[in-house]
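Late entry, evening session. Most of the bench is empty. Finally got around to the prediction I had been postponing all week. Sequence below, unchanged from the version circulated by S.P.
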Amino acid sequence: MSIQIRSIGPCIGAEVTGIDLREPLTPAQAEEIHAGMDRYAVLVFHNQLLTNEQHLAFTQTLGPLENTARNTLRAAADFRLPPQMADVSNLDGNNKPFARDDRKRLFAIGNRLWHSDSSFKAIPAKYSLLRAVSVPSKGGNTEFAHMGAAYEALDDETKAVIEDLVCEHSQLFSRDLIGFREFSAEERERFKPVRQRLVRTLPRTGRKSIYLSSHAGTILGWQLPEARLLLRDLMEHATQREFVYSHKWQVNDLVMWDNRQTMHRGRPFPVNEARDVRRTTLMGEAPTVAQQDEAVAA
């Protein structure tokens, strides 16, 4: 049976059938998945009974892994997964939900803000692949916004204004939005801001998108109040319902998305229930400023 890809969202998201991710991908299958990502930005694979090792193996057939070990505030005692995987669950090292007032939980719920994975790194992430091992009784959906469609819906004047803008991204900015401000000197150094273009071009298709995230806190050359207001206006525009797909998780779902042309956010769920979701992440190709220069030259 060949791979089938069926659209499930307004302008974003597709369901993939006809593939068992436990089996090695052929080059042709890998290319179909890359093409599906270019077109739909989010791909959903249901009923994939994967081990952590199989999840990692599938990811690595699509490109090199990003190192996610220092993205969170988890201590070594709370690491449950292989070092190449990001534990974005609400579980501690004993597989128990973090307490409501646990510092690690309060940092992690910043993921309920619209964001793009690793935009706070000099070379931001390409794809993220998230797998559900257990899900809560209610809530916990993940919402995705298509930043290419959002860019195309902007008026020409706004496109001209944002075309060459460069923002600074940091988890210090995003956590400040929810009142999480107590960082150690080491954490502040680890999360120091990096620069990203506000408009990105997808290398394989040439399609432009707005590169937004809650991690974006400043625009180079702009006064802070004006920069924050522009970013807020763009965020409101880009997360209108016509650009958004909401995924209701089932156990053994694997959802992958393209961080270069999407934002996403998690939704609330009961604090005392487990939401065990595990992520692998593919490295991006280059810093976004370098990518844009290459796209213009081509």
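Two things to note before I forget:
Residues 292-298 have pLDDT under 50 and may be disordered.
The chain is about 25% helix and 25% strand.
Will write this up properly tomorrow.
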